[in-house]
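Backbone-to-sequence.
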């Protein structure tokens, strides 16, 4: 009987984990900015991407490998910010499941104000994706415009995680 209870508990844990991977919060710029500021004492990797962006999709496996490598490090966190439209939320959820994305995914539902919030993240950002911004203790420490290789990602994390 004890074994049956343990097995049921494990199944429940895996179900809860799976449910977490198939939900996406949709937020506005101000909420994302607040989240970034709240991640004190951490190196925060924020990647802006879309399911329809080929370079974004190409780099995501590298991001997941690195995210999994640092998953147990309390001083590290990765957030994937989808710039897909809110009406495409189900496609984003399906994408997360199919690609086994392990980092937190947020849908930034603020396309109409892009010209307002993009320069707040980085004055040199022209709006193209993928873009990855690294924050340490809420302060921007690195901006990467374009696709990142696994090595570039790891080097930037190693340099700033200390």
């Amino acid at each position: 009987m004890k074994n049956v209870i343990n097995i049921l508990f494990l199944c429940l844990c895996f179900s809860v984990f799976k449910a977490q991977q198939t939900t996406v919060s949709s937020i506005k710029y101000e909420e994302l900015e607040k989240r970034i500021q709240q991640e004190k004492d951490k190196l925060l990797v924020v990647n802006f991407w879309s399911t329809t962006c080929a370079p974004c999709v190409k780099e995501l496996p590298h991001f997941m490998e690195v995210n999994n490598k640092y998953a147990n490090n309390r001083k590290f966190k990765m957030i994937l910010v989808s710039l897909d439209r809110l009406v495409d939320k189900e496609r984003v959820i399906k994408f997360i499941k199919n690609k086994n994305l392990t980092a937190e995914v947020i849908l930034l539902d603020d396309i109409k104000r892009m010209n307002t919030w993009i320069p707040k993240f980085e004055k040199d950002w022209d709006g193209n994706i993928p873009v990855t911004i690294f924050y340490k203790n809420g302060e921007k420490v690195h901006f990467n415009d374009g696709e990142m290789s696994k090595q570039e990602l790891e080097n930037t994390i190693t340099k700033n995680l200390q």
